C-alpha cells in the first residue's frame, strides 16, 4: 500500500509517506529477532537438499533462499540476499505442486476412483507411498531429499507416551495412532490382492504407510490452484521452510493466475544470512507436536489448554437448557500472555470468569452489595483453584538428569509437559494473587 502511495502522491505528500514507510519497516524488523537469535547454525552434509534445489531450478523454481541446518530444528532456509516486505522469497511452478490434479493423471487414481468411496486425500497418501519407490518418478529427487523419519508425535515410543500420561496430548496421539492403524487395516492387504501390480506387498507395509502419513501431516499446504479449487498439496522446496510464531511469510495459499506459480512473499523483512520462517498456521503446541514434531521457540499465543465445563442443571419440565447451563469448552492459555496481567484479575481469561460467574450464580447487578461482590469473587477464584490445583499436582516437575539421557521423543514429551505446567501454574498464581490482594482491589472499585 505504501509503495503505491509513494508512486502516485505529490512531492509534499511523498515526504510524509516516505517517513511513515521507513517507520513501518523499522517496526517490522524488530519482530522475531529474539526467535531467530536462538537458532544455532550447524555444518552438515546436505547433498540431497542441494540436488533438490538444482532440480527445482531446472523445473522453474525461483528462489532467494538457500538451505541451512539448525540445532534443534533440522533443516531450514536462509535468505541468500536481503529481502524486503512484499518481495517474493520463493516461487514454485504449479507443475511441481503435488495435488489432486496430478493424482488424476496417475494409475493409482484410475484404479481407485471407484473403490469403496475412497477420498482423494487417501489416494494422494497411497500415491506418495508408492511414488517414493518409483525410480523413474518425475519427483524422485524430491522424495530422496525427504527424511527417512519425520519424528512427529505419531512416532512416539512407549517411554514418550508414558511421560505424557495425564495430559490431553496423550489422548490426542493415541486417538490419531488408532485412527491410522484402522485406516491401514481397511486398505491392506485388500489393495495388494485387488491391484497387485500397483500395490506391491513389499512397498505397502505399515512403516511405509506411516511415513506417507507423517509426510502429508508435516509437509502439506492448503493451496488454491489456478483452477480455483482449494486442495491439500505437497510443495517441493517450500517444505524446507521452518515455522515460527513470528514468521516472515504469512500469505502464500493461492497460485498466481498470470504466472501459474505459487509465490511466497514476505510480510516482514529478512536480512541476508537470516533464517526465513513460514507460518504453518495458528496451532497450539499439542497440534505441532503430534503432526509436526516440534514446539516453537518463544511464546506461542495459540498454546492453550481446552477446559470442558459441564454445568448442566436438572430442568423440572425438561425444557431446553440455556447457554449458561450447557457443556462449554474454554481455551485457557498462560496468563503471562494477557495484556492485563495485573489488577484486578491478573490475566485470568474473562470468558471463563463470566461463564463461571453465571454457573455459580455470582452475577453482578445494581443491587449487589460490596460484601456480596467480595464474596462472589472469593468463591469464583477458589473454584478456579479447585479446578487447576489438581491438574498442577498431576504434572510433577521433570528431573533434569532424566532429560539429558533421554531419546528425542521423550525430550519433546517432557518439553510439552513443562509447557502445560507453566500454563496451569500461571492460572494458579493469578488466582492466588487475586485472592491475596482482594481487599486492596475492593477499595479501588469503590473509588
Automatic annotation (TrEMBL):
Record Gene3D superfamilies: set domain protein methyltransferase, domain 1
PROSITE patterns reported for this sequence: SET
Sequence ranges assigned to domain SET in this UniProt record: 63-281
Annotated protein name in UniProt: SET domain-containing protein
